[in-house]
């Protein structure tokens, strides 16, 4: 999309935000040599996690682990990533790296990633790293609706304090009702499009758009068009509303 002079669909509100690609600001960071990062969601806007896009034309070498106490989730949008622990992630491969995981990231030229990081809230023993690929995850109908399939990327074990899913919508499918809850979300549209309700606003969304949904914001999505829609969505999970943040 090429917006008119001085305009953008991006919209930042008290408890939600829509971040569209033409408004991304790509910067460099000392901990990510060779990369540009567009941070889309951060604690400065009220979120309890960070979400960004990482891209590199020249490749990445030995990207250091996340800071102490921080969990990291990486999803490959294009290209491939190799971890120092031996795993290779190709397009739509992913890795959950719990706090204090001693793993560095490298990649050849031409890679783009979705990066999520949050301060991990432990319930007993911290889980081991998880590696996978979307194509290997069997989808399950959400509340029995086979036009809306969920692929869970992390185990349902209570030791995980977050959940990351791929939501798959048949054209015309929608969430069953407007949700309101104390958990928050970070979302990236992967394919297709539709309309997202956030609070009292209705946003047209398509591939590449990102959304932050803060605690208790009313939220709903309906898929439009002739092709399926998919988005990746994170939420803080297995936590009491009074859990330490």
UniProtKB/TrEMBL annotation:
One of its GO terms (molecular function) is ureidoglycine aminohydrolase activity. SUPFAM superfamilies: RmlC-like cupins. Residues 166-232 form the Cupin type-2 domain. InterPro entries: Cupin_2, RmlC-like_jellyroll, RmlC_Cupin_sf, UGHY, UGlyAH_cupin_C. It holds the Pfam family Cupin_2. NCBIfam families: ura-cupin (TIGR03214). This is Putative allantoin catabolism protein.
């Amino acid at each position: 999309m090429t917006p008119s002079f001085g305009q953008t669909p991006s919209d930042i509100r008290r408890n939600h935000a829509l971040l569209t690609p033409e408004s991304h600001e790509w910067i460099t960071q000392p901990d990510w040599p060779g990369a540009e990062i567009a941070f889309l969601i951060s604690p400065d806007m009220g979120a309890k996690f960070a979400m960004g896009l990482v891209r590199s034309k020249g490749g990445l070498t030995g990207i250091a682990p996340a800071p102490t106490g921080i969990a990291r989730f990486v999803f490959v949008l294009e290209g491939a990533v190799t971890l120092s622990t031996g795993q290779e992630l190709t397009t739509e491969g992913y890795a959950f790296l719990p706090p204090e995981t001693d793993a560095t990231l490298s990649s050849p030229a031409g890679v783009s990633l979705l990066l999520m990081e949050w301060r991990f809230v432990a319930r007993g023993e911290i889980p081991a790293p998880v590696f996978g690929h979307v194509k290997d995850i069997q989808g399950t109908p959400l509340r029995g609706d086979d036009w809306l399939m969920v692929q869970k990327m992390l185990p349902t074990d209570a030791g995980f304090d977050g959940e990351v899913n791929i939501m798959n919508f048949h054209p015309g499918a929608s969430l069953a009702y407007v949700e309101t809850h104390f958990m928050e979300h970070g979302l990236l549209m992967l394919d297709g499009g539709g309309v997202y309700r956030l609070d009292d606003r209705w946003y047209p969304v398509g591939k590449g758009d990102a959304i932050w949904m803060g605690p208790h914001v009313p939220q709903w999505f309906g898929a439009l068009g002739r092709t399926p829609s998919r988005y990746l969505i994170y939420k803080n999970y297995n936590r009491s509303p009074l859990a330490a943040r």
